[in-house]
Amino acid sequence: MAEGKDPWLAKSNYWTMGQLVGGIQRKGHAAVRIECPTTLTDLEPYAEDWDRLSAGVPFRSWTWLSNWWRCYGPQNETEAQRRQLATLCAFDDQDKLVGIAPWYLERSTRTGRVLRPLGSGDACSEYLSVLCQPAREDAVLEALADYLLHAANGCGVQGLEWDLLALNAVDAADRTMGALVSYLAIAGCSIHCQPGMPCWRLELPADWEAYLCSLESKNLRRDLRRLERQFLDSQRAQLHVATCLEDLPRAMAVLVDLHQRRRKALGEAGCFARSKFAAFYHSVVPDLLRRGNLNLCWLEIDGQPVAAEYQLVGAGVMYAYVVGMDPNASECEPGKLHNLVSVRQAIAGGYRAFDFLRGDEPYKRRFGGQPQPMLDYRIVPDKTVARVRHGVWMAGKNLKKWVKRGIGRKGPDYATCPPQNSSEERTMACSTSE
Q1: Which of 318, 321, 413, 420 is closest to 376 using CA atoms?
Q2: Could you tell me whether strands 112-117 and 164-171 are parallel, antiparallel, or unpaired per DSSP bridges?
Q3: For the chain, which domains are there?
Q4: Pick from 2, 9, 56, 57: most CB atoms within 10 A?
Q5: What's the pTM?
């Protein structure tokens, strides 16, 4: 046993044929060991392995999530009492990292001890998941489930007792997350699941003309061709992309200015009015550029910036994360023009998809986006205090439903997932895109 490790870690995470732990029949998988590093310094040696396991999704990367924790994690001793890193790392018998549950633990009197994904909250990270080497997925998930069951009951996992695992905006097609939830349900955890706000993804054709022909709206197709002639063919519009660190100050400033002006015109504060979001932006963007996961661009018409977008890229997908537009340039249709330029740029760059991310704004469907169902999970361990808290939360939620729908009408049954098109059940997650 390595010095300084919790003894439970060394003796309880090696599965043998027929072993029963937490009600789950083990399958004789090769040994998997779970450890819970408590600082980014402890995790940093595994950064490259982390990125390998992220499968090219930038929101899951070490770059994104480590910068997020530096900005949203505890900034002083008082905050450190309420939040701690709780990233669970799975190692095989050769000490190779084969799985990561990138989470943190948050404590409060009202909600108890809640495990949440790194990157969650107002940063609006998408497609968060448990990261696994595909060939070891079952072994990793079983080991994680057993570790969580022991930790929930305070059995040998010091400081990681939890009352709720809150997983928001989980891709409904994410097999890994679905399997982990199933393991925990079989072991006796209560599972509450409801549809979240969907992401909208556009699968890209081989060329721009094919894309235009694929649009359902003839009016949009006509408008895009007109904007092409008016601004692109005439070269009145120019797209600028930050390709090196020297380009970033200008590009970052343009985005902040246009985004904040646009949101202010709509009577909203804007993303960058939040100090932690602004700090995260300035921290992560240079690292994303170095790693090749950034497309920060702005569009000028007659030499004046009218639109800008902070896009992430990875594994053949371009993600539209934060956008800004000049509220005084409506005659140029900057939003429509910038979407035109972005999709055209993605097709020319060989990307397979353009993801508009969360939010039900009508333009996403008009531009060809298809909804990607997302799920919100609340996972409650089989212990009294946690179930009481969950019961109180459920009662409050149902009361709101009854008031909204009218007393005397039957309330919803949350034992299973409601239909995914139930707009009433969508989590009102923040939407940083226009």
Answers
A1: 420
A2: parallel
A3: 7-196+374-391+418-425 (3.40.630.30), 205-351 (3.40.630.30)
A4: 57
A5: 0.86
